[in-house]
Amino acid sequence: DQQVKQNSPSLSVQEGRISILNCDYTNSMFDYFLWYKKYPAEGPTFLISISSIKDKNEDGRFTVFLNKSAKHLSLHIVPSQPGDSAVYFCASTTSGTYKYIFGTGTRLKVLA
Amino acid sequence: DTGVSQNPRHKITKRGQNVTFRCDPISEHNRLYWYRQTLGQGPEFLTYFQNEAQLEKSRLLSDRFSAERPKGSFSTLEIQRTEQGDSAMYLCASSLGQGKYFGPGTRLTVT
User: Fold this and answer.
1) Fewest Cβ atoms nearer than 10 Å: which of A1, A8, A76, B5?
2) Using a CB-CB distance cutoff of 8 angstroms, which residues of chain B are in contact with residue A53?
3) pLDDT of A14-56, one tens digit each?
């Protein structure tokens, strides 16, 4: 029962261009969504989050969009940099539970 | 370094042995979590503490697994009678509010 899906296992983007990572969820009770970045041999690092009362949240080069009717969120990175190369996980949760459900990750490679 | 720390970073054990991992959270964080990650998957929730109270346990946490946070600070995760299927990265995280900060993980290999 995969409640959070990242259907693209990998993505390659040229440096300076936009990276778009997608995530779909099935549980309509989820009301808080996060993106984490993971480098090899390190734990996941929090990137950006969004509450279900918003449809967009921006932090520097990172923007997360939420489409509640489609149960879809996306992470935009612009401009992409080689240091952004990592595995990106989306996670969903319901307020008050503190239990995150993670997707399987998308490996982003930014080509110099 | 004031982040979440985990020890050991790597553990190789033989099937049937017991192992124990330690997590030291960020000092002011009252919530502590354990997750497990296997190859090609995202982290999967195992259990969660608020201070010293264990408030939620996943069905993934079989009877061979036990977690403690005796004084509301560091936590230990013990796996008894390890099986090859226990091979994974065990991640600890801590938080004050909604955002979780993860440690580097302990990679367990059961031979």
Assistant:
1) A1
2) none
3) 999 999 999 999 999 999 999 999 998 889 999 999 999 999 9
Strand order in the sheet with B75-79: B5-7, B19-24, B75-79, B65-68
pLDDT at A97: 82
Q: Which of A32, A43, A104 sits opposite B104 (nearest CB)?
A: A43
Phi, psi of A11 (to 5 degrees): -155, 135
Q: What pLDDT shows up at residue B1? A: 54
Residues 86-105 of B with CB under 8 A from A: 91, 93, 95, 98-105
Which residues from chain B sit within 8 angstroms of residue A45, using beta carbons?
Answer: 102
- What contacts 24+ positions apart, CB below 8 Å, involve B40-45? B40/A104, B41/A104, B41/A105, B42/A4, B42/A6, B42/A89, B42/A91, B42/A102, B42/A103, B42/A104, B42/A105, B43/A44, B43/A89, B43/A100, B43/A102, B43/B91, B43/B102, B44/A102, B45/A99, B45/A100, B45/A101
CB half-sphere exposure, B49, CA atoms < 13 A: 26
Closest CA relative to residue A88, chosen from A24, A22, A41, A32: A22
